[in-house]
Write the structure tokens for this entry.
Amino acid sequence: MKYKLLLLSTLFTGSAIMTYAQQPKGKPEDTEFYTPVPKVVTPGKTNADPPSDAVVLFDGTNLNQWVSVQDSSKPADWTVANGIMTVNKTAGNIQTKQSFTDYQLHIEWRIPENITGTGQARGNSGVFLASTGKGDDGYELQVLDSYNNATYVNGQAGSIYKQFAPLVNANRPPGAWNVYDVVWTAPRFKGDGSVDSPARVTVFLNGVLIQNNTILKGQTLYIGQPSYKKHGPAPIKLQAHGDKSEPLSYRNIWVRPL
Ligand code: MG
């Protein structure tokens, strides 16, 4: 026993000496740098308000930053009233005039309190993080009433539609506003059209992490396996889903290109 203790104390002493001997040479300043200085961004009054460097896509007054997806020469014909925009299902999808690559996006959505329907036919819409064509081409972050509404989990609100379920269900009930904060990294493609780096997305719903640097399998497909098709900077698109339930609303949309 005594011998063991002696051995242990010798080991510890030995390792302490080693640690001391391995102290690096140099000064703390060697690993401190002062440039480039991060530019100043003035945050909004609350985390919902656009920071000073954001592109405001909808401030409650008009749809000047949006166009019809079917005919991008035409204005986005959704309803604007009382500081919110409401889906017009007959007008179809709308998308931003501007195209983006990597960005941070803030967008709020509300399912009507009187929503009816079940499954995918209950307040269905979607945020296409990059719109790659007419219709539903692109990468869809699902919008749906998922407060108390069963459906396939990779089709509930906060899913990357038909690919990844959200980590948790942090939905508010119909009638309350839900908030998405999204970090989107666009895919990159090689000259021959093959994928150089896939798309990645991080999403918070109402401040709760629901997609954690998720690597997308490709563009959203309703039927079949997702795959990539080469594209460049792309608009952000909002879905006018064809289900018969009462149309939902959006407000307070801004984006920070990265
Ligand atoms: Mg949808």
In short: The pocket of magnesium ion is lined by residues 124-126, 140, 142, 239, 241 (CB under 6 Å). Residues 33-257 form a domain with the Jelly Rolls fold (CATH 2.60.120.560). The chain has one domain: 33-257. The chain has a mean pLDDT of 93.
